[in-house]
């Protein structure tokens, strides 16, 4: 299967015109966020694995060519060029799991101009979404004060592929697992989940449902208690636990979650069952988590779904793929609010007392080593294996630790990024 | 390729337990929006084609089974059941392109309980996203007063599949085309696009860039004029047009779009070039379109991207997949704010002077015909061919025409939906 039609028409019209007018010199395009949303103090680099995988399949299939021919826009020479197209350029990037800010080049692609112009749409698509969800996930983790957070959003992702990529990003950022089985299979992420309301509704009583579940899965002792009346069901759970049914936790998925958590915790504690964990879900996001934990609400685990997987408070980033260099010379535009900085770039991060202090975005020449930007592809091939998901997760945890504490809150902070002119 | 792991773990744990406890009777699940976002006066049904396509491939592959076995959660009997799984149930739905409201069953799936429990995640995923973007697109069309609107969002969709589905939804709702080539190929949608800033930047002057483009594509006379200075470039365009270069339109992609449109229109008109169309893009959404057109700003075409494709003002819907019937009896839950209505349902729409007046959601029994809900699958097979995209588009246009005018504005309106108890 080819991925080369995952692009906008104008990438191809431009490429044909570049070829016809001898604009085939070496160009560099850079992907970066021009600004951060008000709702983000930092971003986490993501999407690179997806981009590299898609680039490997970036071919115009015979069907694609037939389709393009049918548009009666392109020349025969250009269609022949597309038939032979293979990405054979250079790609450098800031590794996945790194914290990044405005104007920092997440990915830089270098190659003959027409060849890399064509990649714009797909490259931006992958890096934009990967970074969007990794950043949202890290923001949630940043306020979760070590509590357990799991990813439940698959049903409301913008199509299945987004759900799979988001589950991976969540795990990288520090979520402990996902409900998403395809993501579990593909990336080796722990999978979690127990029962929905429909399960409970199928039995005459909640007790009958829980006993049935217990007989099917003796090792899985988490029960959903809000199908009818959460507090009445809490008493049922207490009775079962006292009878020796192993109960590890309960989930509350509706109502005033904080109020119910306090009441349920109180009842369990008074019943001598302090080990039963309280798990909440239903419209949970970093705003509710932060408010609840700041208020001492006794919640042990959060199931985060819709708000994470759609990045609902900031559903897109102001991220672009911009020409910065052509035949060794600078390229930039001066459109209002859309000014770009020319040349290949390196990012140097400065620390103070072990915490990130400020970043410099400098010209790459002479600074290939020692900055955040690393080489990934040369002549279209990987220069080193891509890191394993667990290694990216470790790196992300270290990055979050070295972020100054005020950035790990929901109050807006501006990190200092100095761009060398 | 199988799509059956596009699901949450708990769907499978529930299904195993249902099988073990004899809960294999006929069940009905219904997909509906519990409420509409404040930013939506109506929804447009979408996603059905995707769901039906995915259901056809809903198989647990050998690899999937190996993965599930490795989790050490499931019984051998259940894994054997999954190996043989084929969806063989009944599916009824409100056709794509229809206007729908809260509590109206977009899709109802009937079959043995474990078989249809397993479909929850994928079914919701497809219908939720399809409806989300069709609704956003129709809202944009509703305020565009017949102007031309094209879809430009592919680079910021939540992964490529969402971009393809969204381009289709946009066309159904009335957009005239998309930049997305894969969507063009797959669905026969008109594709549009000309050049980006990078193209203009590659030439010494804008004039040189435009002449080069013109020589490559003599029939495509739309030029991007904001790379450096929009008004200076307007003069260049006027000079070229007077020389006989065919200019059909210009695109402005930065700055104060309304102010520039007025100035550029004025210059073209004074230069005797009233036929040159003004096309604007960059952060365009229904709010800016409505404001500009209400203010008489002379814009002919809108390129809508990010805000459409992420449905940025309402990036998700409160949509659920709920058990409503089991073995012929009602099922409903009473969780606060999550009350559901039991039984299979039909939707009857009432009109007044040719415009939609109110809807009734009644029990299906005895009302199989004459309502919005139609049969699609029986014993897992299509009962009729799915409609062509152009037919869905026509239907959607008719639906928008019969929506009372106050719903075709951005001011919040509540449509009356009476749910029979």
Task: Explain the overall architecture.
2 copies of one chain form a homodimer. Chain A is an alpha/beta fold and 421 residues long. Chain A folds into 2 domains: 9-134 and 314-419, nicotinate phosphoribosyltransferase (Alpha-Beta Barrel), CATH 3.20.140.10; 145-309, Aldolase class I (TIM Barrel), CATH 3.20.20.70. The first copy, chain A, has 15 helices and 18 strands. Chain A has helices spanning 9-20, 48-56, 62-70, 76-83, 113-117, 120-142, 160-173, 181-187, 197-201, 206-216, 230-242, 257-270, 286-294, 306-309, 389-402; strands spanning 26-35, 43-44, 90-93, 99-100, 107-112, 148-151, 177-178, 222-224, 249-252, 277-280, 301-304, 318-326, 329-330, 345-352, 355-363, 374-378, 381-382, 417-419. In chain A, the strands form 4 sheets. A 7-stranded antiparallel β-sheet of chain A has the order 13-12-1-5-3-16-17. Chain A has a 6-stranded parallel β-sheet with strand order 7-6-11-10-9-8. In chain A, strands 14-15-18 form a 3-stranded mixed β-sheet, with no helix packed on it. At the A-B interface, helix 1, helix 3, helix 6, helix 7 and helix 8 of A face helix 1, helix 3, helix 6, helix 7 and helix 8 of B.
């Amino acid at each position: 299967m080819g991925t080369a039609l995952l692009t906008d028409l104008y990438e191809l019209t431009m490429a044909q015109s570049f070829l016809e007018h001898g604009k085939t010199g070496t160009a560099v395009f850079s992907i970066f966020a021009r600004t951060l949303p008000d709702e983000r103090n930092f971003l986490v680099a993501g999407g690179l694995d997806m981009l590299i995988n898609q680039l490997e399949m970036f071919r115009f299939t015979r069907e694609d060519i037939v389709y393009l021919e049918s548009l009666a826009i392109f020349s025969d020479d250009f269609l022949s060029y597309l038939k032979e197209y293979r990405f054979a350029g250079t790609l450098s990037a800031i590794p996945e799991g790194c914290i990044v800010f405005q104007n920092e080049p997440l990915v830089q692609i270098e190659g003959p101009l027409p060849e890399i112009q064509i990649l714009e749409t797909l490259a931006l698509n992958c890096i934009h979404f990967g970074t969007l969800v990794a950043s949202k996930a890290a923001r949630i983790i940043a306020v979760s004060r070590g509590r357990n957070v799991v990813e439940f959003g698959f049903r409301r992702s913008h199509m299945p592929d987004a759900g799979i990529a988001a589950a991976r990003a969540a795990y990288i950022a520090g979520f402990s697992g996902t409900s998403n089985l395809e993501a579990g299979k593909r990336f080796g992420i722990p999978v979690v989940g127990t029962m929905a309301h429909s399960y409970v509704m199928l039995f005459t009583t909640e007790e009958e449902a829980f006993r049935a579940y217990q007989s099917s899965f003796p090792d899985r002792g988490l029960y959903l208690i809000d199908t009818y009346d959460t507090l009445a069901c809490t008493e049922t759970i207490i009775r079962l636990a006292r009878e020796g049914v192993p109960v590890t936790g309960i989930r509350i998925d509706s109502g005033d979650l904080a109020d119910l958590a306090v009441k349920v915790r109180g009842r369990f504690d008074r019943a001598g069952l302090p080990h039963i964990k309280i798990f909440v879900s239903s419209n949970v996001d970093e705003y509710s988590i932060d408010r609840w934990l700041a208020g001492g609400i006794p919640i042990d685990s959060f199931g985060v779904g819709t708000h994470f997987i759609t990045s609902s408070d900031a559903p897109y980033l102001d991220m672009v793929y911009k020409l910065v260099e052509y035949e060794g010379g600078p390229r930039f535009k001066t459109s209002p609010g859309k000014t770009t900085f020319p040349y290949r770039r390196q990012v140097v991060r400065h620390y103070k007392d072990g915490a990130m202090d400020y970043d410099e975005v400098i010209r790459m020449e002479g600074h290939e080593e020692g900055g955040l930007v690393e080489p990934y592809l040369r002549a279209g091939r990987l220069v080193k294996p891509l890191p394993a998901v667990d290694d990216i997760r470790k790196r992300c945890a270290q990055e979050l630790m070295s972020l100054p504490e005020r950035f790990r809150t929901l109050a807006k902070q501006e990190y200092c990024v100095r761009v060398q002119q």
